[in-house]
Design brief:
41% of the residues lie in helices and 14% in strands. It is of the alpha/beta class. The protein has a single domain (3-364), classed as Aldolase class I (TIM Barrel, Alpha-Beta Barrel). It has an eight-stranded parallel β-barrel, surrounded by five helices.
Length: 370
Amino acid sequence: MSFLSYLQTLPLESILSTAQNASGTEVERALSSDSLDLFDFAALLSPEADSRLERMARRSHEITLRRFGRTIQLFAPLYLSNECVETCTYCSFARPNAIERRTLTIDEVEAEANILAAQGFRHLLLVSGEHPKRVSPSYVEAVLQRLAPQFPSLSVEVQPQTEEIYAVWVRAGSDGLVVYQETYDREAYARVHLAGKKKDFNWRLETPERGARAGFRRLGIGALLGLADWRMEAVHLAAHARYLMRESWRAMVSISLPRLRPAAFAIGPTHPVSDRDFVRLVCALRMFVPDAGITLSTRESARLRDGVIPLGVTSMSAGSRTEPGGYSAPSAAEKQFEIADLRTPEEVFRAVRDRGYDPVWKDWEVALHG
């Protein structure tokens, strides 16, 4: 059964009603349960649960220590290209926008990667706009082959592909696939994706499953918070994570919670998420899927990132640049969005350590795999 089919079996209307209208009794039941169902998870998102945030935080902290210890993995995004054929209204890379475009050569990618390696990074996330010619499957394969000898963990966040192409990338050295649904609300999805292949909601939603069958050992999913009601996004994201953990059990599943950030030519959030609700969502997810990774990007402020370190986060980006070539030298190439945490990787490293946690640059060695 695919996730699309699984969704059709869920009483989503009742679950979403609980997320809005849960009683104190329902929230207390969720807080006392060792194995939450989707109704329990929804209750923790409800307004009634807001007054119990400190208890949720303590519970989330305890679960995280048991499952992951005091480690925070550090990684960096490496932007390959800002060329894109899509029309996403929330992204500066979108096709209609009059921005400076750039796609890195393989040598330029390696130069960027060398800078990140010198800073300590061994986990890279390769990111690009969705351009099937400029960022072709063969181009991504060549990038992976060039970087794999130096980096034990390479994830890709590029245009969704077929299972067959993903299998080629796995053989070339990629171990992780990241794909955000952007929004699980079909109507909102249609409003912000005006044309192009990305307009196909179902094709994108099934991408992690294709990646799992192709052999990726890590799957990253997420929703871009701000495009639709955050409680609706959270319920679907939680259901998606649990489905993948059950059906694609050979892969580790991680969840990202990016909030919409300012970007050139792009719309702002129509459904903003407060810091307090954001923290509550992190805690609720940790309680619902205790073995899933939770990733926090530099979209969030240094203050918030430092504050949620004990509450369920397992990996963080650091020193990020969201334009191609941004690590080597400033250029006119447009950023995908403005980052909020401007600290250097070393400053993030110290901040994690000062809070009693172990910042980890490398936690995987390909020689141990099969």
